[in-house]
Amino acid sequence: MADRVAWGEQDIDVIDDLTAPFSTLRELRRPVTQDTAQLIHGDLTGNVLFAPDHVPAVIDFSPYWRPPVFAEAIVVADGLLWFDLPSDLVTAAGRGHPEWPQMLVRALIFRLVAHSEHAGPAGRAHPGEPDRYARAIEVVRQLARS
Predict the structure, then answer these.
(1) Contact 30, 8 (CB under 8 A)
(2) Which of 35, 52, 60, 100 could be joined to 47 by an S-S link, Cβ 3.0–4.6 Å?
(3) Alpha-carbon distance 34 to 32, whole Å?
(4) pTM of structure
């Protein structure tokens, strides 16, 4: 469901704590000229195992049929939300892709809706979560202006 909402294919209500950032993200979402879709991992962050002298192993595959740059945007959005990714590194991602800011908007919607759905209709966001989304949204706004 979060994937369909991120791409404007479905709409839902989110938990009260996340209504404001969700509304802002939907206002920022614009149509995109999609690249050729392919099978992507929609939850790569935290699902790659690394060990010395071994090839990295991808686990817990979450398949989606979207442009490859969207998978990259999800990893960057996760970095912005939960791993204190410096905002200047956001511009290094996306390799100059013309739709990069819009991919980030969709990735943030994807994560926000997934967390709202996990919390359930009467649920609450984790402490600080609305603020994390507000900070990430500001980074995306700055990126779109540049």
Answers:
(1) no
(2) 60
(3) 6
(4) 0.91
* Residue 42: exposure state from Cβ atoms within 10 A (0-12, 13-18, ≥19): buried
Who's near 129: CB < 8 A, 6+ residues apart?
17, 18, 115
Q: Who contacts 146 (Cβ-Cβ below 8 Å, separation ≥6)? A: 91
Instruction: Give the CA-trace dihedral at 27, 13, 7, 138, to 10 degrees.
Output: 40
pLDDT tens sequence across 44-65: 888 889 999 999 999 899 899 9
Identity at 126, one-letter amino acid code: H
Quick check: 66 and 2 in contact, CB under 8 A?
no
Question: What are 13's two structure tokens?
Answer: 């209500």
Residue 52 buriedness (CB in 10 A; 0-12 / 13-18 / 19+): exposed
Q: What is the DSSP letter of 124?
A: -
108 exposure class (CB count in 10 Å sphere: 0-12, 13-18, 19+): buried
| pLDDT tens figures, 115-132 | 999 998 888 998 999 999
> CA 18, CA 25: separation in Å to the nearest integer?
11
